[in-house]
Structures are given as structure tokens and as C-alpha cells.
Amino acid sequence: MDFDSAMLLQNKSTEDNRSKLASFIILLVIFLITSGCAIQPKVVSEAENKQRIAQDLLQLKNEHDPIKGPISLEEATARALKYNLELQVELTQKTLAQKQLNLRHYDMLPKLVVDLHYDSRSNFSGARSRSLLTGRTTLEPSTSADRDIFSSALGLSWSVLDFGVSYYRAQQAADNVLIQEEQKRSAVNRIVQEVRSAYWRAVSYERLVSRMQRLKDKVRKSIDQIDQMKEGRLSNPKINLTYKRDLYGIEREINLLQRNLLLAKSQLAALMNIKPGTEFDLVIPERGLFTKAVNLEIEEMEQIALESRPELRELFYKKRANAKEARAAILQMLPGIELGARYHYSSNSFLFNGDWLSLGSQLSWNLISLISAPARLEELNSKEKLLDVERLAASMAVLAQVHISLAQFDHFNEEYRTAFNYYQTQQRLIEQTRIETNMGKLSGQALVREELNTLLAEVRCDAIYAELENAYAGIYVSLGLDPIPGDLNIKDLSELTSELAEHWRKR
Fold first, then answer.
1. DSSP-assigned beta bridge partners for residue 151
2. 168 lies in some domain
3. How many domains does the chain have?
4. Which helix (H) or strand (E) segment is 118 a member of?
5. What is the pLDDT at residue 3?
6. Coil, strand or helix: which one is 41?
7. 362: which strand partners?
8. pLDDT digits 0-9 by tens, 218-240
9. Does 1 map to a domain?
10. Which of 316, 324, 323 minimizes the C-alpha distance to 381?
11. Taking the alpha carbons of 135, 141, 142, 145 in that order, is the dihedral positive or negative?
12. What percent of the chain is predicted at pLDDT more than 70?
């Protein structure tokens, strides 16, 4: 067979291979298009939804320590700190920020890349040469590669510019961890305040629920008696209607008290992440005068607040992270230098050296960054000025909150003293009213009214006491002092309850 015949057979084989390749590509494209078009939104099925609900309910039930007795304020606070889902979100965000910081550390390392490649041909890759001067074909077709070739490479590369930028990004991630920590502190303060408020109102409900119901029954009984008297026409209709109106007013007051106080216990259960409808009792402390006091000068309180408030610390970390971003922007204006080393291996038997080591360096410079850099730096400078203004505004708000919290504490302390004395006086008055009612000197209407006044005096006393407790705790919140000791993640419920009790006893 001469050379021309061989070339004709070679060209025919090449055309057949090209035809097969074209058919394969067309079929692949059709498959990809049809597969992509087949993807449609999939609504969650009823079975999947039920399975999700069952899993959530089981998880909510199993993750709680069982209620073994009446819940104290410290235990309620501990349960909220361990099981409140809003607080769990903050804790999870802090954990995520720490993981992101750990990931940023790897960005500063060199890149180590492994390449594996296998190439198989249906025939040998042959070639011949043609003279550019005469146009004559020289040499017969030859090949320098096997039909099946396996090659690999192990490369190590390091970009100086990327290292610098990654270094500042890692520092920003570290600041973000601290920002999340301050946001967690704010969330803890908020949850603790809400628990204290709901707890004391719920305590008031526990104290008075039976008495409110008894008084309500007595009011209904009195209304029925008036209706019977009206039917018998034995009394003055105007007096009866006036008395009946007063009784309905008392009943309305009782219903309002029951509603407000009952909601407090439901709110407390929600804060502790207790399943709605779960029955639990509260520790009922005895009423007495408030003996706690704040032994700090106002100047000292202001200094502590400016140093410790989470909002101010968060703004400081944000400003520091912004400065790191400015440094990273400046680095991105510089040319990048990349150093690399690669080890190569090839199974091609025609190669004289089947493995070799290569070294290289590369200099690249994005000139567009020089144009955009001034605008980027101006943006970061404006952001820094904004953070400064926000810090000053927050500092002024913090100082105002310190003064307001102290004034509120003094106000509620005095108001509670008055309410407690009023309640004690009302207690003596109701006892005297009962005596005179039994002697026939006063009517049952007067006794019912005084019973309501006594009940209202107790409610007001408890409500003001709750406000006083919140105001006392609010002073420490305004100072930025943590309402809990130590770390939440390492304590069980009983340990956290004990530490909370000891922590607040020292205050």
C-alpha cells in the first residue's frame, strides 16, 4: 500500500470517529437539557410534614430536665438560659462564627494540588512535517506518545498577596467571634429580665388565684340574691340596681386581674421553653420589705457601664474589623507574586524522563484595582465615621440608661414601701370589717367591697414588687454586668441554678 492510499484510509477512519463523536455530543446535550427541564419545585408532602412535626415534638420533649417540684426564680432563669430557643440561636451563631474563624486559618496556607489524568486514544497520534519554504512533506508519519497515557502532578503554590488578604480576613473573623459574644450577652440580659418580670407576676397569680375565684363566687352569689329580692319586690329597686352595678364592676376587675396574671405564667412557660399546657408550680416567697441596695457612686457606675456594655464593645469590634478591611483593600492594590513547585509523572514510554520537577513564579497586577481603590477606601472611611457617631450616640444612651435605671429603682423602692404599708393597713381594715359585719353593723356589700380592695392591694403590692425586682436587676443590665456566672455550655440545670442563686445573693 502506497503512502497516498494509507492517507485515504486514515482520513476515512478520522471522519468516522468524528461522526461518532458528534453523535455522542448531540445525545449528551439532549440528555442534559431534558434533565435540567425536568427539575420542578417540590412541595413538602403530608407524610414528610408529619414526620418533621413528630421529630420536633420528640426533640422538644427529650431535651428538657423533668420538673421535680416548685420552680424557684433561679431555676426558672436557669431553664430559660439552657432551653430558650431564641438564646440557643445566639449561641449557635457564636459557634458558627468560631467555625468560620477556624476555616479562615486554612486560607493562609499554601495550595497543595494533586492532578491525575488518564488519556486513551483509538489510534496512535501520528504526525508528519511540511516545509514552509518548499511546501514538500518531509519524513513519514511518526508518533511520540502511547495510545494510553497516565499522568499525575503534585503542585505546591503560594500567593504572597492572597496570604496578606487572608491574614486580615482571619482577623476580621476573630472580631466577628467577639461581636457574636457581645450579642449573646445582650440576649442573655434580655431573657433574664423577661424571666424575672414574668416570674413575679406569675407568683402573684399563684398567691391570689384561689382567693380571686372565691371572691368571684361570692359576687355571683350576691348578684343572684339581688335578683331574688327583685322578684320578691321586698327592697328599693334603685338600691338593688346600684348594688348590682357595683358587683358587676367588682367581677370585671377580678376577670381583668385573672387574665393579666394568667398570661404571666404562660409567658414564663414560653421563656423556659416548657410545652404549653404543662402544669407546674412556683416557689411562693413571703412578702416583706425590700432590703437590697446599690452601693455604688454614680460616677463609678458610669465608668463601669462605658467599659462593660455589650453594645459599646460590639461597636469597638466592628470598627476594628473595618480597619482590617481597609488594610486588605490596600493590599489588593499591590501586584501579586505567586511561587510554585510541581512534581510531574507520565507513563508515556516515549519520554526520555518520565518524571520531573518544575519551579516557577508569577507576577500579576490587576490595574483596575488602582482605579476602584480610592472609592473603596472612601467607603470604608465613611463607615468608620458612621461607627464613631454610633459609638458616641450609644455612649450617651448608656449614660442616660444608668441614671434612669437608678432613678427607677429609687422610685419603685419608695412606691413598694408605700404599697406594702397600704396592704398591711388594708389587712387590718378587712379584719375589722368582718367583725362589724358579723355583728350586723355593716352590710355584706361593704364586706365584698373591702375584700376586693384587699385583693387589689395585694395585686398592686406584688406588681410593684415585680417592678422593683426588675429595676434592681436593670441597674446591673445598664452597667453591662453579666447576670450569670461563667459559661452556659458546661453546666447542667442544677449546677446553673445553684450558681445563679449564689451569684445574686452576693449582689
1. 117, 346
2. yes
3. 1
4. strand 111-120
5. 46
6. coil
7. 338
8. 788 878 877 776 555 555 677 77
9. no
10. 323
11. positive
12. 90
Q: 204-222: per-residue pLDDT in tens?
A: 888 878 777 887 887 888 7
List for the chain the helix, strand, coil content (%; round to 5).
70, 10, 20
- pTM of the predicted structure, to 2 decimals: 0.77
Grid coordinates representing 443 are 352590710
Give the tens place of pLDDT for each residue, 29-50. 777 677 666 667 777 777 877 7
Only one residue has cell 334603685, namely 238
Residue 4: inside a domain, yes or no? no
DSSP string over 334-365: SPEEEEEEEEEEE--TT-S-SEEEEEEEEEE-
Q: Calculate the average pLDDT of the chain.
A: 84
CATH code, domain with 429:
1.20.1600.10
Contacting residues for 279 by C-beta, under 8 A, at least 6 apart? none
- Among 317, 315, 300, 318, CA closest to 479: 300
Residue with cell 414564663: 268
Residue 189 has pLDDT above 80, yes or no: yes
Query: Is the alpha carbon torsion for 215, 221, 223, 225 positive or negative?
Result: negative
Is residue 258 included in any domain, yes or no? Answer: yes
- CB 71 within 8 Å of CB 285: no
Question: What range does the domain containing 456 cover?
Answer: 86-119+143-506
Over the stretch 373-383, which tens digit does the pLDDT of each residue have?
888 889 889 99
- CA distances in angstroms from 120 to 13, 24, 141, 149, listed in the order given: 17, 17, 20, 6
